[in-house]
Design a protein that fits this description.
Layout: H1 2-70, H2 79-90, E1 100-106, H3 110-114, E2 134-135, E3 138-139, E4 168-178, E5 191-193, E6 196-208
Antiparallel strand pairs: 1-4, 2-3, 4-6, 5-6
Helix pairs in contact: 1-2
C-alpha cells in the first residue's frame, strides 16, 4: 500500500512538472510570435487609415476647389477662410480641420499642372502632382498655411492667393494625421513634424478657372493678417 501511494505521488508530481513545462513553452512561443504579429496588425491598421484618409481628402478637396473654379471663392481672402468655409465643410466631418494645411498657386499652363500628363475632366489625377513635402528634417510645410494662418517658413510668399478667371490653378492640401506604427517602426508610413511622429497625406487638384466676373478683393482692416492677393505665376 505504501509503495502504491508513493508511485501515485511520483506520477502526480511528474505530471505537474510536465504541465508547468508546457505552460512555459506556450508563454515563450507567444512572446516570440506576439511582437511581429501585433506589429503586422498595426501596419495593416495604418495602411487602412491611409487609404481612408486619402479618399476622404481627395473627396473634400475636389468639392472645395469647385468654388475657386467658378469664382465663388473670391471673397475668401485667406487660407483660414478657405479651410473653414470650403474645405472643412466638404470633408463632412470625416477629417480634423485643424490638421489641414493648404497651398493655392497659379501655374503657367495646364501641362505644368499635370507634369505632361493628359488632363481628364476638370481635375488632374492626384498621383501626377508631386509628392508629400518631406526633407531630411521631416515634413516641410513652410509653403503651406493652416487654420491659424500659420506659415512655418519665415519670409516666404503667402501660400494662399485669389484666383482670377481663365487661370490655371494648382491646389495642394496636406493632412497631418497621427501615426500608429511610427512609434514602433520609425519612418514606416510616417515622418516627424514639430516634434511629433505623424502620417502626412497629400491631395492635389489642378484646373483652369471659368470665365467668371472678377470680384472685389476686401481691403485689410488692420486687424490680423492682410488679405491674400491675386494668384500670379511664380509668386
Amino acid at each position: 500500500m505504501v509503495s502504491q501511494n508513493c508511485s501515485i505521488a511520483f506520477r502526480s508530481r511528474h505530471r505537474s512538472r510536465r504541465a508547468r513545462g508546457r505552460r512555459a513553452a506556450v508563454a515563450l512561443e507567444f512572446a516570440i510570435v506576439a511582437l511581429p504579429f501585433f506589429t503586422w496588425l498595426l501596419f495593416l491598421f495604418e495602411l487602412s487609415y491611409d487609404l481612408f484618409t486619402q479618399e476622404a481628402l481627395d473627396y473634400a478637396l475636389q468639392g472645395a476647389v469647385r468654388q475657386i473654379q467658378t469664382g465663388s471663392a473670391t471673397s475668401l481672402t485667406s487660407g483660414k477662410d478657405f479651410i473653414t468655409q470650403a474645405l472643412c465643410p466638404a470633408a463632412k466631418g470625416l477629417l480634423e480641420c485643424n490638421n489641414m494645411w493648404l497651398r493655392v498657386t497659379a501655374v503657367s499652363t495646364v501641362t505644368q499642372i499635370t507634369g505632361g500628363a493628359t488632363v481628364v475632366g476638370d481635375y488632374t489625377p492626384p498621383t501626377t502632382n508631386g509628392a508629400v513635402p518631406i526633407n531630411a528634417s521631416g515634413l516641410d510645410l513652410s509653403q503651406y498655411t493652416n487654420l491659424a494662418n500659420a506659415n512655418t517658413g519665415s519670409g516666404l510668399p503667402n501660400p494662399y492667393c485669389i484666383a482670377s478667371a481663365n487661370q490655371a490653378i494648382l491646389v495642394s492640401v496636406v493632412y497631418v494625421g497621427p501615426s500608429f506604427i511610427g512609434g514602433v517602426l520609425p519612418g514606416v508610413l510616417s515622418t516627424s513634424f514639430l516634434g511629433s511622429t505623424v502620417h502626412p497625406t497629400l491631395s492635389t487638384a489642378g484646373f483652369v478657372t471659368e470665365a467668371f466676373q472678377p470680384g472685389s478683393t476686401p481691403a485689410s482692416s488692420g486687424a490680423g493678417p492682410a488679405p491674400a492677393g491675386p494668384c500670379t505665376v511664380g509668386s
